[in-house]
Amino acid sequence: MRVRGFSFSTVEAAIKKPGRPDLAMIFSEVPADVAAVFTTNRVKAAPVLLSMERAAQGKARAVVVNSGNANACTGSQGMMDAKETARLVASAAGIPEESVLIASTGVIGRPLPMERIRAAIPGLVAGLPDGTLQDTARAIMTTDTFPKIETAQGEAGGAAYTIAGIAKGAGMIMPNMATMLSFILTDACVEPVFLRQVFRKGTDSSFNIISIDGDTSTNDTAILMANGAAGNPAIQAGTPEAERFEHLLRHVLLSLARQIVRDGEGATKFVEIRVVGARTDGDARSAAMSIANSLLVKTAFFGQDANWGRILAAVGYSGAEIDQDRVALSFDNVLMVRDGIFVGGDAEELGTEVLRKKEFSVTVDLHLGAGAATVYTSDISHDYVSINADYRT
């Protein structure tokens, strides 16, 4: 997929182990307007702190990403290494150092192998004309089993534009205002304030409604770059073009978020959790996320056990307002609970059949109001434990 004015490159720096590209670069031919959101974890990796500062300036030319090493909890040396990486890339590419954003993912607590990164950077910059977005999506993977890519096409002022996004993430998934690593590119010209507003809104209704294991990473980063190469008049808030751009951007973000859940570490199920009839949307979201994060619920999904009691318990401790005598619960279209009580009959058998599918939905109706929310989650399997027990080896 080509996004005008952007080029890509990947190289192997053997950051964690040899055998695959693990250093990537996204480059804009002109200064691009930037919107970004980052982890709310109070333990933040050096690249997050550096990119937060630089993204606040509103412009960037490049993003450099490494996999295999998070450069988190590495002290002052970690920040020096992040800055040196940006400085070397900027020098080789002939752009200002402050216009280079940095992102990292991988093992926490280990210094970057800077001697290998230094040696790889000249080839990284030289390879810009030949790389692809697909190459970049593969290079940023860690425990992911497939690259995550989505694109959309739009038009503004008679000019066609593209929105393309990539993401990595399969574990430590329950972000707040960001997710693992995600990079969204568009050649549309978009008014900067609107760009930032729509991106924050979009991440909140996509990356922030997923959970695999309830953990928020030290490195979560999502960056949107808009370079205006499509040549359209700037998309302004409150216009039909703005509404269309927001719709397309949300489509890309939500698709990436759903792909992350489908690729959850060791996951065998993709589950849509809907809470309706809540007093407020906030209550609905709290209840849905409580279900999505419950280890007892997630292990029941893996075991194909229609244990609706675990779900009601999770709603009950979520903080949402609830009258247990009004609650209804369904697996897909199979009603399991009415007025807070098991419906009986063949519901257990039918509910178990639903849970045997790879994808299904859970709907909880609180019958208290018009509040509603949807989140996406996966099960927790034996493989999740094995993957994370062996992650550093």
Write a structural description:
- The protein has 393 residues and is an alpha+beta fold.
- It has two domains: 6-262, L-amino peptidase D-ALA esterase/amidase; 270-389, ArgJ beta chain, C-terminal domain (Ubiquitin-like (UB roll), Roll), CATH 3.10.20.
- The protein is 34% helix and 28% strand.
- The strands form two sheets. Strands 1, 2, 3, 4, 5, 6, 7 and 9 form an eight-stranded mixed sheet that branches. A seven-stranded mixed sheet has the order 8-15-10-14-11-12-13, with helices on both faces.
- Strand 12 and strand 13 form a beta hairpin.
- It is globular.
- The two termini are 35 Å apart.
- The relative contact order is 0.13.
Ordered list of secondary-structure elements with their pairings:
Blueprint: E1 6-11, E2 23-38, H1 46-55, E3 59-69, H2 75-93, E4 100-107, H3 114-126, H4 133-139, E5 148-156, E6 159-168, E7 181-186, H5 192-204, E8 210-211, E9 221-226, H6 240-262, E10 270-278, H7 281-293, H8 295-302, H9 308-316, E11 328-331, E12 334-338, E13 341-342, H10 347-355, E14 359-365, E15 371-378, H11 382-389
Parallel strand pairs: 3-4, 7-9, 8-15, 10-14
Antiparallel strand pairs: 1-2, 2-3, 2-9, 5-6, 6-7, 10-15, 11-12, 11-14, 12-13
Helix pairs in contact: 1-2, 2-3, 5-6, 7-9
Mean pLDDT score, rounded? 92
CATH topology of the largest domain: the name is: L-amino peptidase D-ALA esterase/amidase
Instruction: Provide the CATH architecture of the largest domain.
Output: 4-Layer Sandwich
Count of the separate structural domains = 2
Order of SSEs: EEHEHEHHEEEHEEHEHHHEEEHEEH
